[in-house]
Design a protein that fits this description.
Blueprint lengths: L2 H132 L4 H55 L12 E8 L2 E8 L6 H7 L3 E6 L2 E12 L4 E9 L10 E3 L3
Antiparallel strand pairs: 1-2, 1-6, 2-5, 3-4, 3-6, 4-5
Helix pairs in contact: 1-2
Length: 288
């Protein structure tokens, strides 16, 4: 074989080796990119799953927050209504006090008028006595006039005594009403200053949790010592119920509805301790 042929054979071998090297490197890179793509795709799917779960959890929390907001708004409206009723009572008592003060003023005016009349009658009696002394012939008539004046005076004195008694009675009534009015205002102010809200006033009830789901739970009533109308109590004042087990306090809930057929109260949970979960069989009471 000629030297040129040998050179071409060597060149072909070198080129073939180079091609094989390039092809192998290309296949290796292609495999690496495929593995990276699959890993990235799996990571993306895991992120999507995690984000979907977070969205679902946030939607549940949003629903619970809206329920709690509705409950708090109902409590606020109830407090405003009660405050309006208290203010109406205060206005009514004030109007009654003003009316009685006017009656007292009239009674005093009448008493003063009666005193003027008595003074006039006394003067008439004195004139009658003088006339009797001065005119013996008119003695009997003067005596009769005197007796009539004295009788009228006695009648007026009785009227004045009755009016004085009425005035004293009115004074006592006004004092009692003023005392009651001030006591009511003081009680309302003290109660508000100490954080009292109507939902704290609850009938004595106790029972057991029969269903719990998120912020909702159902309590079967076991004891109702006062035999109160539970639905009426809820409508007038949605009261609080404490939920607990052997380990102690777990949650605080607000009664929203009473189901007579099941003797059960539907509640919204407004507070839980340290993330504790309410479970079927937990105890519940308005007076733990």
């Amino acid at each position: 074989m000629s030297p040129i042929g040998r050179v071409f054979i060597v060149l072909n071998l070198v080129l073939a080796g180079g091609f094989a090297f390039v092809a192998g490197d290309h296949l290796k890179n292609q495999h690496n990119w495929k593995v990276k793509y699959e890993q990235a795709d799996e990571a993306r799917k895991a992120d999507n799953t995690r984000l979907s779960q977070q969205i679902a959890d946030l939607e549940v929390k949003l629903g619970n927050a809206e329920t709690a907001k509705s409950t708090f708004q109902t409590q606020v409206d109830s407090l405003r209504n009660e405050l309006a009723n208290k203010e109406d009572d205060i206005k009514r008592l004030t109007a009654l006090t003003d009316s009685q003060a006017a009656d007292l003023k009239k009674a005093v005016s009448l008493q003063e008028a009666n005193q003027t009349t008595i003074a006039s009658l006394v003067r008439d009696s004195q004139e009658a006595n003088k006339a009797a002394i001065a005119a013996i012939s008119e003695k009997d008539e003067a005596i009769r006039a005197k007796d009539a004046a004295e009788g009228k005076q006695a009648e007026l004195e009785q009227t004045i005594a009755a009016l004085n008694a009425t005035v004293s009675k009115k004074d006592l009534q006004i004092a009692e009403l003023s005392k009651d009015n001030e006591a009511q205002k003081l009680l309302v102010s003290v109660a508000r200053a100490n954080g009292f809200i109507p939902s704290m006033a609850a009938p004595t009830l106790s029972g057991t949790v029969t269903m719990a789901s998120g912020r909702l739970c159902t309590i079967s009533v076991a004891e109702n010592p006062g035999n109160v109308d539970i639905q009426d109590q809820i409508e007038r004042n949605p009261f609080h119920i404490t939920i607990y087990d052997a380990s102690g306090f777990k949650a605080e809930a607000v009664a929203t509805k009473y189901e007579p057929s099941a003797n059960a109260i539907l509640c919204n949970v407004i507070l839980t301790k340290d993330g504790k979960q309410i479970k079927t069989g937990d105890s519940a009471s308005t007076k733990p």
